[in-house]
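Exercise 7b. Backbone tokens:
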């Protein structure tokens, strides 16, 4: 199978060095995209708390608005919230003014409803273009990409184990999903990742330190 389905090609990291493709402290950063959603985010929060792991949740603005109590729980548990666009729109086909408006909208929801300043962005489907850096710079935000896609959204633990087993490194930024798609296998997926990390003597990091 094509390795780029799990981990972005090397040249991307050279072309866009201002984006985060891996952690800067040789620790693993675990991230969740597409929530918060009842039915999955709570389970994940409980598991993270039991295992003393801090994470970033790249929230879809719409989900954030509809599930403010879950968002509050994310923050009160010491995790961070990132911006993943209001409706999970792919930004590459949008006008610059539209992208700005949409990023702002999610930031403002977090500010107004959670008294929280969002610092991190992740483009839906990982799709960005040459404008992305400049736009985010004006917001004072950082684009957080990844080095490992676990394929948890396919709801097949074998895929997650294969991806994590083959591509987990000590400085990986790992993507999971707290959407409904992954809810049946998410805890087993996290367990496997932690076991794999432990076997290889890799540590799990705290978001701000991983992204310095
Ligand atoms: Zn997404």
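Sequence design result:
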């Amino acid at each position: 199978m094509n390795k780029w389905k799990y981990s972005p090609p090397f040249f991307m990291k050279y072309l866009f060095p201002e984006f985060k493709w891996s952690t800067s402290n040789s620790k693993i950063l675990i991230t969740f995209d597409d929530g918060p959603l009842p039915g999955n985010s709570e389970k994940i929060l409980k598991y993270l708390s039991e295992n003393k792991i801090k994470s970033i949740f790249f929230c879809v603005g719409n989900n954030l608005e509809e599930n403010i109590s879950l968002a509050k729980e994310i923050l009160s548990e010491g995790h961070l919230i990132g911006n993943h666009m209001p409706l999970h729109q792919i930004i590459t086909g949008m006008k610059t003014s539209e992208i700005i408006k949409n990023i702002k909208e999610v930031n403002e929801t977090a500010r107004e409803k959670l008294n929280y300043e969002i610092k991190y962005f992740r483009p839906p489907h990982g799709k960005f273009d040459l404008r992305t850096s400049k736009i985010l710079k004006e917001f004072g935000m950082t684009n957080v990409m990844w080095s490992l896609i676990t394929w948890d959204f396919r709801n097949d633990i074998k895929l997650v184990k294969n991806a994590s087993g083959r591509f987990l490194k000590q400085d990986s930024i790992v993507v999971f999903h707290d959407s409904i798609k992954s809810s049946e296998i998410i805890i087993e997926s996290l367990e496997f990742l932690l076991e794999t990390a432990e076997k290889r003597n890799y540590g799990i990091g705290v978001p701000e330190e991983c992204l310095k």
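Instructor comment: The chain has a mean pLDDT of 95. The domain at 21-210 is CATH 3.20.20.370 (TIM Barrel).
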